[in-house]
Every structure is written in C-alpha cells, then in structure tokens.
Amino acid sequence: MQFIKGHGTGNDFVILPDPDNQLELTAELVAALCDRRRGIGGDGVLRVVRAAKHADGADLAGEAEWFMDYWNADGSFAEMCGNGARVFVRYLLEADLATPAGVALPVATRAGLVRARVEGDVVAVEMQRPRVYDASTATLGGLTLTGAAVDVGNPHLVCALPAGLELSGLDLTRAPEFDAALFPAGVNVEFTAPGEPVDGADEHTLMRVYERGSAETLSCGTGACAVAAVALHDAARDTGTVAVDVPGGRLTVTVTDSSCWLAGPAVLVATGEVAPTALRP
C-alpha cells in the first residue's frame, strides 16, 4: 500500500492515495498506521478518493473531484480537519491530480465543500465561518476552566487560561473532562493565552489543544479557527485576522462576513510503501 507523509505546522498525517475507493480501510488499520512506534505515525489518515466514488462525498461530486476521507489517529471519523485539508491540497498539487483554479480549488469533506488557494509554501483553505454558540467548562486535573463552545464543522471548546497560569504548565497527557450532554460526539479542547501584538493581525493568541481521537497535537487547524473566532468575539469584532501560535508554528486565520480562511505551511516529507498485514497484531 502506497503512502505519503505530510504535516501542517507539525500536525502530521498519513496520506493514502485511493482514487477509486478500493482500499479496505478499517478503524484498526488506521490506528495501526498512526502508531508512532509500530506504524508510520501520525495524528490521522487522509485518504484521497474521488468524490463520486465515496458515499460521503458523492453529493459534492458535481462541485469537487476529490473527497478528503479523514480519520483520527484512533480510527474514528472526524467531520473536518483544517490542517489536514491544507496537506491534502498540497498532495493533490504535487501529485498532479489538480491545478489551482484561481483562488478556488474545491475539496469535498464530511463538513461540506472547502476551497483552497496556494501561494508558494502557504496553503489556505476557506471553511465555514466559526459559530460561537454556548458556554461550558473543561476540567484538567484539579483545574476547571470556563470556555466557549464553537462550531467549525466539528465541535470545539476554547478555554482561556487565567492570569498567572502558563500554557507550558498544562498536563495534556490525559483528556480534559467536558460536558458530554453539550458535546455528545466529543470535543476538541483548546487552551489559550494572549500573545504580543503581531504586524498584520488584529489579535494574537497562543494555543495548545487536546484533539478528540488524537490526544495532544502540535497544531489543529479548525481549533485555530475556533480560537480566532473567540478572540474576535471577546474584542467585540465580527471580522478580522488573528495570528494563532501553536507548538508547531504559526497559523493565520481570517474571519470574514461569510467564511473563515486558515493559512499556513503544508509540507510533504516522505513517500513509501507499507504492508498492511505487518501492522496488525
């Protein structure tokens, strides 16, 4: 089975070319591929399938040729992955499966259609405008933090740290506790602190994230969009640009009246072959 390894600000993925949806991909195989000791290692799997060939992408086949079949590292599905979409687009271009059509290269996802534009090393994807819709809490060890619930096509809970508490001091080796009634399908939990002013950005935020199905990751694209939406909301702004620093680098999020652009580097680092049977216990 062929694979490509790529990442966006350290959020890394195993890419599986499967244009006609012929791979027998299972939750167990995905988890084995993402195992960092016994497999290839990754925060998730991006299967590259023609939209018309996949049940979850067929409705968008008239608008996009390719469907991003995204799986979390534990083998569960996710509706959307912002960094994954950017890496997915980088692969399509380098594999000559697509060419940028102006600023609107379409990709089908479980959260709907996203559009991409590419400028050198930077890949930006346009997603739905984040919606801040409720308040809730997350508990990490003995610390309970108030946060804002945000819909970015997948669920997020953005929790600002109180003054005096450093992001680097958080123990994210275990999943934060959250309100399962508000988030029945689980939730990505972002922890934030304010950053110093950045040229070209209206706000600057520092972020760490615990992703459902993947544990702590170096970056989360939809999480950065959620964090940006909360930063703008707290600043009484409806739109604007937010620099979001994650452990893997910097993402730039621009929230408009109707959508949200996530921009940053997307890199392919390796190609190879893997024997699926060797990954199974």
Automatic annotation (TrEMBL):
The listed locations are:
Cytoplasm
EC number per UniProt: 5.1.1.7
Q: Which residues bind substrate?
A: N11, N72, G82, N83, N154, N188, E211, R212, G221, T222
Q: Which reaction does it catalyse?
A: (2S,6S)-2,6-diaminopimelate = meso-2,6-diaminopimelate
* Family matches, as SUPFAM superfamilies: Diaminopimelate epimerase-like (SSF54506)
- Which PROSITE patterns does the annotation name? DAP_EPIMERASE
Assigned keywords, A-Z: Amino-acid biosynthesis, Cytoplasm, Isomerase, Lysine biosynthesis
- Residues annotated as the enzyme's active site: C81, C220
Q: Where is this site: Could be important to modulate the pK values of the two catalytic cysteine residues?
A: H156, E211
Task: Give the GO terms filed under biological process for this record.
Answer: lysine biosynthetic process via diaminopimelate
GO cellular-component terms in the record?
cytosol
Gene Ontology molecular-function annotations: diaminopimelate epimerase activity
Where is this protein chiefly located? cytoplasm
Under the heading InterPro entries, the entry gives: DAP_epimerase_AS (IPR018510), DAP_epimerase_DapF (IPR001653)
Task: Identify its protein family.
Answer: Belongs to the diaminopimelate epimerase family.
Oligomer and partners:
Homodimer.
Protein name listed in UniProt: Diaminopimelate epimerase
Q: Which organism is it from?
A: Micromonospora acroterricola
What broad taxonomic lineage does this protein's source fall under? Bacteria, Bacillati, Actinomycetota, Actinomycetes, Micromonosporales
Q: Which gene encodes it?
A: dapF
